[in-house]
Amino acid sequence: MNNQFLARLEKLTSNYPKVIDLSLSRVKKLLNKLDNPHLKLPPIIHVAGTNGKGSTIAFMYNSLKCAGKNVHVYTSPHLIEVTERIIIANKQISYNKLFKALDYCEKVNGGEAITQFELLTCIAFYLMSKTKADVALIETGLGGRLDATNVIQKPIITIITSISMDHSDFLGKKLISIAKEKAGIIKKNVPCISAPQTKEVEKELINKCKAKQAELIVCNKDSFLRINDFGFKINLPTIKKYLFSKPSLEGPHQIINATLAITALIKMPELNISLNDINNGIASTYWPGRLEKINESIIKKHSIITKDVWLDGGHNIAGAEAIKKWILHKGIRNIILVCGFLKNKEARDILLILKDHIKYIILVPLNNKKSYTVKELTIISKNLNIKCYTRSSIKEAITSNLILKSSKVLIFGSLYLIGDALKLENN
What we know:
By secondary structure, the chain is an alpha/beta fold. It folds into 2 domains: about 1-285, 3-Layer(aba) Sandwich (UDP-N-acetylmuramoyl-L-alanine:D-glutamate ligase), CATH 3.40.1190; about 290-425, Protein-Tyrosine Phosphatase, Chain A (Alpha-Beta Complex), CATH 3.90.190. It has 16 helices and 16 strands. The strands form 3 sheets. The chain has an 8-stranded mixed β-sheet, with helices on both faces. A 6-stranded mixed β-sheet has the order 11-12-16-13-14-15. The chain has a two-stranded antiparallel sheet with strand order 9-10. Helix 1 runs parallel beside helix 4 and helix 7 (about 175-180) packs parallel to helix 8 (about 200-210). The protein is globular.
């Protein structure tokens, strides 16, 4: 069903150039024909940034569910099934409903040019408008200012996760250019919550919020966030004495994402959500492919000799830095990296960050025409003096004689790769 839907989506948008052209005009036109469903949604939390968007939304979603709330969610990309992207009142959309919505939106669009992400965004808003919920969590796809989701006029909160270099072909070659695009979701008189940023990015957010008369809360570790061995505290007047449990998701960076989620929920008193519900949500969140230990059933099914296999969808420089911090925090040595990259990622710079912590790399091809070949990645690895091997698939890599019982393995570099690894449970 997943391939059928994606093939249909590609066919319907085939009259539009493959090169991404960021614009709001096409999506506004279709939404207008659909009677503007984006204006009929429950209170919206709009999330932009480079890394951590999905994790932050997952923390909020799980906390809201713990409090008995009904939540709409729109995220991207998906790992295995496109239905992962849309949740309506706590339920992942079915293919039946998704195809019906696609049929209707196709008919209403009348053959007008539109991109795949724009069409899917319109479908998500249309479906959300048909069912009541307490809140909607919306993630940008690319950038912010001209992202299809930025037709949202009055969110109740905006969140900017960590901003770093990524998608520079579309968002700009300099960090400040990328920050300006991400800051495009900030709205007049709407509070904005930000992760710790570089000085130049924080200055841009301060200026943008000042121009929009929007309160800015920056979750800096020194002044706003206090972490100890037992958990963490947040310096907000009503909760600064409350000790939150450490997040269920691995990695020091997840405390920042959890803090963004908690601060957003606290800033919405109308939700009437307790600190205990939020804490329980943060401590039990599951978000696949983000420093996730591979399922035991996959280990047994494929007779993988080590049980210490991890997945992480980090695919840019900031993602590599987060992995490095996790490795140092855990005191891990000589990790085996199984990886592949899309060509729009700085593979050399990413591998350079991890070089001193890698025993060797096993390179595998991605099922995507825009990816590096294993031959190209072999050249990059050898130029960095990193020992590398190649295998034809994820399965072949982690079941090969390159993996020993004592090995610690990290599958890393692309969400396509993570999706392939998770499919091993059913293949």
